[in-house]
């Protein structure tokens, strides 16, 4: 079946790079979403807190938000809020890089697995699965994440307590927090007010 790039659902697989065991998510999103909105979806399904700079890269272009009084950044950025996912799909893009937090440098690989027709009975974005909780914010990138895991598993109670106190509560690396993900996506869907094309 031929699916219009502008009125389709993209099945995205998102993998957090350089970490084993793999942290990944799968989500169905409308191609009519802007890349800024796709950013919001990634934040929700991964469990990030959306408090750092971010960018997409596809082909030779980078997409993000413009920064006031930063001409060097703005010169190389295409505005994510006015770029639809469908524009990338139309250019046959199937692999997209997404970086969150330029300091900790969390690199995500986004794979456009397939396009499917819209099902008006489904609320999009739709969570389709995943494994393992994302690292804590500001933990120091991949090395800091591994150190954090070692500390919360430590037999030394002081080291374990200090790590969990810093995090602010219990941390289960295998619990992705699916209920929260689904609730956050429902909130995003409500804000999008998407309109599907009707068949004549």
Characteristic terms for this protein:
single chain, 200 residues, alpha+beta, Structural Genomics Hypothetical 15.5 Kd Protein In mrcA-pckA Intergenic Region, Chain A
Description:
The chain has 200 residues and is an alpha+beta fold. The chain has two domains: 141 residues, Structural Genomics Hypothetical 15.5 Kd Protein In mrcA-pckA Intergenic Region, Chain A (Roll), CATH 3.10.290; 38 residues, no CATH class. Strand 3 and strand 4 form a beta hairpin. Helix 1 packs antiparallel against helix 6. It starts with 8 loop residues before the first strand and ends in an 8-residue tail after the last helix.
User: End-to-end distance, in Å?
Assistant: 18 Å
Could you spell the SSE succession in H and E letters?
EEHEEHEHEEEHHH
CATH class of the largest domain: Alpha Beta
Please tell me the CATH architecture of the largest domain by its name: Roll
- Percentage of β-strand residues: 25-35%
Structural class: alpha+beta
User: What's the domain count?
Assistant: 2
Seen as an oligomer or otherwise, the chain set is single chain
């Amino acid at each position: 079946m031929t699916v219009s790039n502008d009125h389709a659902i993209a099945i995205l697989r998102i993998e957090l790079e350089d970490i084993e065991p793999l942290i990944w998510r799968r989500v169905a999103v409308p191609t009519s979403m802007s890349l800024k909105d796709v950013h919001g979806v990634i934040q929700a399904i991964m469990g990030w807190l959306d408090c750092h700079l971010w960018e997409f890269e596809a082909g030779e272009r980078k997409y993000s938000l413009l920064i006031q009084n930063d001409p060097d950044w703005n010169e190389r950025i295409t505005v994510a809020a006015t770029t639809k996912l469908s524009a990338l799909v139309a250019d046959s893009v199937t692999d997209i890089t997404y970086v969150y937090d330029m300091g900790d440098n969390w690199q995500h690989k986004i794979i456009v697995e397939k396009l499917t027709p819209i099902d008006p009975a489904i609320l999009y974005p739709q969570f389709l699965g995943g494994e393992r909780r994302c690292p804590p914010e500001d933990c120091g990138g991949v090395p800091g994440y591994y150190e954090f895991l070692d500390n919360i598993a430590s037999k030394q109670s002081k080291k374990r307590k200090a790590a969990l106190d810093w995090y602010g509560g219990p941390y289960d690396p295998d619990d992705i927090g699916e209920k929260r993900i689904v609730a956050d996506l429902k909130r995003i869907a409500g804000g999008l007010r998407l309109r599907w094309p009707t068949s004549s």
